[in-house]
Amino acid sequence: MTEVPRLAPTTEEDWDDDTRALLDALGRMNIFTTLAHHPKLLKRWLVFGGHILAKSTLEARVRELLILRAGWRCGSEYEFGQHTIIGRGTGLTTEEITRLATEGLHGWGPTDAVLVQAVDELVADHAVSDETYAELSSTWDDQQLIDLVFTVGQYVLVSMALNTFRVERDDGVPGWPT
Is 166 left (phi over 0), alpha (psi -120 to 50) or beta? Predict the structure, then answer.
């Protein structure tokens, strides 16, 4: 059974002209219409989110692997479902997406395994271990390492908001893999 949202999405009647224009540009997804209760925060959060989604030094497939694992670790079905669609578009397979919603590192190659491990550590411990950091830094440069940590942090934050406000998935967005 789906829980009732704690904070219902706003409607067009609630928006000023700036918020309406912003939501018209973004699309009227439940995450955005819910956060539109606080238009100034929404606008500023989108700048950071825009960096993570469009200007990061990480390849899109890597970014989506990180986001999906963070969404699963945080129990955010909304986030996992939304990024299942995006992740498929970056080349993640259905098998990989399903594996991101399971414990352990079985089936991952070394490069992806260390990324999954990094997400698990960041969510659980709020830091990457020395061993994992050494592995990451042998492949990724400083800017990529920063983008990795901030990507996971952004989606832990988003998952917290989605879970707390009980934002419902948008029509057509899948839930957890079966």
Answer: left
Which are the contacts of 126, defined by CB distance < 8 A and separation ≥ 6? Answer: none
Query: Would residue 79 count as lying in a domain?
Result: yes
**Are 85 and 69 contained in the same domain?**
yes
- What is this structure's pTM? 0.96
Cβ partners under 8 Å of residue 96, min gap 6: 65, 112
Does 62 share its domain with 142?
A: yes
Same domain, 75 and 140: yes
Instruction: Report d(CA 73, CA 100) in Å as an integer.
Output: 9
Pair 68, 142 in one domain: yes
Do 48 and 111 fall into the same domain? no
SS (H, E, C) 126-144: CCCCHHHHHHHHCCCCHHH
Q: What integer is the mean pLDDT of 119-148? A: 98
User: What band does 32 get if pLDDT is binned at 50, 70 and 90?
Assistant: very high
Helix (H) or strand (E) holding 161: helix 142-165
Position 19 in a domain = yes
Which DSSP letter does residue 125 get?
A: H
